[in-house]
Amino acid sequence: MPLSAGAAATIKENAGKFEGDAGIKFTVKMYDNAFSKYPAIKDEFVQANHVKDSNNVTPQGKLLAEALVAFAKNCDNEAALGDTVDRIAKRHKVQQVKDASFPVLGECLLQTMKEELGADAALCDAWREGYNYLAELIMAATKKQ
Ligand code: HEM
User: Fold this and answer.
1) Cα(7) to centroid of ligand 1, in Å?
2) Rounded (5°) CA angle 97-79-49
C-alpha cells in the first residue's frame, strides 16, 4: 500500500535531515542504540561494516544514511525507489536478514530520530508509516531475489 499523502509530504520536507554528517551521525547512533538495546540483533550484522573511523563514521552508517535520503526524496514514487530497494534486498538476501527483525530496527529508528534529530510527533508518525512501507518493499524484493 502506498504511503498516505500526508506522511509522504512530511517525510519529503524533512529529507535533508539525513544528508551529510548529521545523517551519518544519526544512523551510526541508531545502530548503537539497536545493538545495546537488542544485543541478539548484533549477530545478524557484519561487524566489520560497523567499525568507526576517526570521525565516528561507519561504512554501514554511510550506506543507511544514503538509503534514507533516497527513500525520503522519492517516498511517493515507488518506481523511483526500485534501485535503492533492490540493492538493499540483494544484501539482505546474502545476509539472510529475517523479516522478524524489522520491527526492532524500526523502533530504534524512531527512538533515535527523537534523540538525535529532535523529531516531533508529526515527523515520528510520518516515519512510522514510512518505515513500515519501506520495510514491506524491501522484504518483498528480498523474496524475489
Ligand atoms: C527499512 C529497513 C532497512 C533499511 C532501509 C536497510 C538498509 C540497508 C542498506 C542501505 C544496506 C547496505 C546495502 C549495500 O551494501 O549497498 C543494508 C545492509 C544490511 N542490512 Fe539492512 N536495512 C533495513 C533493515 C534491516 C534489518 C531489520 C536488518 C536485520 C536486523 C538488516 C540487516 C542488514 C545487514 C546484515 C546488512 C549487511 C551489512 C551489515 O552487516 O550491516 N537491515 N541494509
Assistant:
1) 23
2) 30
